[in-house]
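stage 2 :: seqdesign
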């Protein structure tokens, strides 16, 4: 890609009020491992500083930009940033150093308007880079969370399903386990995995369960493993016992979630389908649906033809800090290239990085090597 194209992209972002930033290339590895998970370790370029602390070459821009933002005197004040530079990831195909560009919009409280602004800017940037056949996929984690909140099932199942949103295969497997043994007589294999002690602890008061685990560790002469206390171990065992418990309410909850995840199509039609689904399932999705439709109104105000967008109820980001609207832009004629732009709302990230106040956040990244 030419330097003129990069310069034009920077100019477009500046015109939209996003000031350019260049966060440090060398970043603390622990931040990425904590927020993204250990599975990213094999894709990072790792080193260590003079003190022995593990460092990495930045694998993305969003986390470094947010870390730098928190060093400001008033991080709660709204701010808009842009970037264009190299990121570093080990990949099976392609160079380990490649270019990314994008924006981060932090602190805006008009959430739906901010979401619409970000998607509109992402489309403008895509067109500037020559993508004239954009296929736009959208999702909404806020709607999914509202569905989970309305379920009549143990909180541990709501946490499990929420953690897996965005990973459809694993989510389907969890829902199958949630529904319990099949009508064909398949046995509950989870019983073998959780062990006899978890079965015994099922239904026991958590404080008594913790004391029992502590006594067992003491009698066995064992110490907690990997820094986990007796309370941690007891909590994990109780969680496994609750996940293995099946009743009619839990089975119905799995069926409700499965029905919701099947909803897809043009955004307005999908909103109508979600409303009918909620009425049939006895769920109150009023607030989440109002935010969803308000965002659609804002997108139309930007001149977007909603018929060109496709909503999928099961589309989300695997990362825990994403909280609401998400989107991807693909080239319709080059579907094999994968997403060219990915973005969305990540209101939990700043708090996870240490912010003392709630800071809303949204943005997008462009994979320039895919254009």
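stage 2 :: out
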């Amino acid at each position: 890609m030419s330097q003129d194209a990069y310069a034009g992209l920077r100019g477009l972002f500046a015109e939209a009020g996003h000031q350019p930033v260049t966060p440090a290339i060398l970043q603390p590895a622990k931040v990425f491992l904590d927020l993204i998970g250990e599975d990213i370790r094999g894709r990072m370029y790792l080193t260590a500083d003079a003190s022995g602390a593990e460092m990495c070459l930045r694998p993305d821009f969003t986390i470094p930009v947010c870390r730098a933002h928190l060093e400001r005197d008033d991080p709660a004040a709204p701010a808009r940033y842009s970037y264009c530079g190299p990121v570093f990831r080990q990949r099976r195909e392609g160079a380990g150093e490649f270019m990314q560009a994008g924006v981060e919009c932090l602190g805006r409280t008009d959430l739906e308007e901010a979401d619409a602004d970000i998607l509109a800017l992402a489309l403008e940037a895509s067109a500037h880079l020559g993508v004239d056949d954009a296929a736009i996929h959208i999702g909404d984690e806020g709607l999914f969370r509202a569905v989970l909140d309305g379920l009549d099932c143990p909180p541990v199942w709501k946490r499990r399903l929420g953690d897996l949103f965005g990973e459809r295969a694993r989510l389907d497997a969890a829902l199958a386990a949630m529904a319990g043994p099949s009508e064909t007589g398949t046995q509950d294999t989870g019983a073998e995995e959780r062990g006899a002690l978890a079965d015994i602890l099922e239904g026991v008061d958590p404080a008594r369960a913790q004391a029992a685990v502590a006594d067992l560790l003491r009698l066995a002469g064992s110490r907690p493993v990997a820094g986990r206390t007796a309370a941690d171990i007891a909590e994990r065992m109780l969680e496994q016992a609750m996940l293995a418990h099946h009743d009619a309410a839990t089975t119905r909850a799995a069926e409700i979630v499965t029905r919701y995840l099947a909803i897809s199509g043009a955004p307005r039609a999908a909103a109508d389908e979600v409303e009918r689904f909620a009425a049939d399932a006895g769920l109150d999705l009023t607030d989440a649906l109002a935010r969803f439709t308000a965002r659609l109104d804002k997108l139309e105000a930007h001149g977007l033809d909603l018929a060109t967008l496709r909503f999928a109820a099961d589309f989300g980001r695997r990362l825990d800090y994403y909280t609401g609207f998400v989107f991807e832009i693909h080239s319709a004629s080059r579907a094999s290239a994968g997403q060219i732009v990915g973005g969305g709302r990540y209101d939990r990230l700043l708090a996870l990085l240490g912010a003392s106040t709630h800071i809303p956040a949204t943005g997008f990244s462009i994979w320039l090597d895919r254009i």
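stage 3 :: structure notes
- The CA atoms of residues 107 and 359 lie 5 Å apart.
- Residues 3-23+58-136+316-370 form a domain with the BirA Bifunctional Protein; domain 2 fold (CATH 3.30.930.10).
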